[in-house]
Amino acid sequence: MIEDPESIDEFLAHGTSDVEEAIRAAAAAEITPRFRRLAAHEVDEKSGPHDLVTDADRKAEEYLSEALPKLLRGSVVVGEEAVHLNPATYEALHGDAPVWIVDPVDGTRQFVHGDPGFCTLVALAQGGVVRASWTYAPAHDQLAWAIRGGGAFLDGERLRSGSPEPGRDLDVATSHPLYTTDEQKRALFGLQTQGVRPRPCGSAGLEYLQIAQGRLDALAFSWEAAWDHAAGLLLVEEAGGVHLTLTGEPFRITGGNALPFTAARDEATARRVLDLLTGRADAETGEG
Question: Are 201 and 210 in contact (CB under 8 A)?
């Protein structure tokens, strides 16, 4: 741990191993022991039957909310469960202080059902810019991280998203229909076309990781919660990928984005998906 670091730059030059240690420790203490061992009283609904929270989510976020600010003087935490209890907490993303953005269990639905497709997401941002991120999949003991301008890595190996093979159908993960408005459903329906294989997404964090690995071509998501996207967006960027909203601008973690948005292995793929979401592809070909 650095004593009173002067800036995020100084911290990132020396302090990332402490972040990794805190994330692994939170998972070891609060998440892994509950995986496939959850009692009924440890699972609750938030907004509905498909929006779940567990004791693992709560306890892991509490662990990280205590550990992470100690690593960087003046930093604050925006965590999914804390924001659920007090939405005003989210406003820290608009402030000047460094912000740890935490999703303790991304893919809670999978976690509850004993599916290993979940992860812990942590991003460090300031002034609306994500500077570093960590994606940890406890069930597989895989850790991916990215530093802005410093690349993206998975268990020490450099990640490069590459480009899809010419002529091959695009594999695209999309928001689940349960979580989309009628207007967003119409936009996402644009992906139901020849040359594209859309499917409902799992854990958002793991979908971003698959793009950074070059195993998934793109995603199209319709919600803005920073804890779901901040870590993965930087991972994709540093692996060589691109993210764009419906207006053609990069996604902003502070909100106000035109949705749905896409993240993809390269710019050409991102723009192709964007054209399908906006209907421009049909207009250009005269189809539809």
Answer: no
Helix axes 16-26 and 55-67, enclosed angle (nearest 10): 150
Asked if residues 161 and 251 have their Cβ atoms less than 8 Å apart, the reply is no
Query: How is the beta sheet containing 76-79 ordered, strand by strand?
Result: 76-79, 99-106, 119-126, 129-137, 142-147, 151-154, 157-158
pLDDT tens digits, 141-180: 999 999 999 999 999 999 999 999 999 999 999 998 777 8
pLDDT digits over 38-75, tens only?
Answer: 988 988 887 666 678 899 999 999 999 999 999 999 99
Under 8 Å CB-to-CB from 18, ≥6 apart: which residues? 1, 71
Could you identify the residue written with the tokens 């399908």? 276
Maximum C-alpha span of the chain: 62
Residue type, 207: E
Q: Compute how many other C-beta atoms are within 10 angstroms of the C-beta atom of residue 127.
A: 14
Global pTM?
0.93
Beta bridge partner(s), residue 96: none
Helical residues (DSSP H) of 190-266, grouped into ranges? 204-213, 226-238
- The answer to whether 206 and 119 have CB atoms below 8 angstroms apart is yes
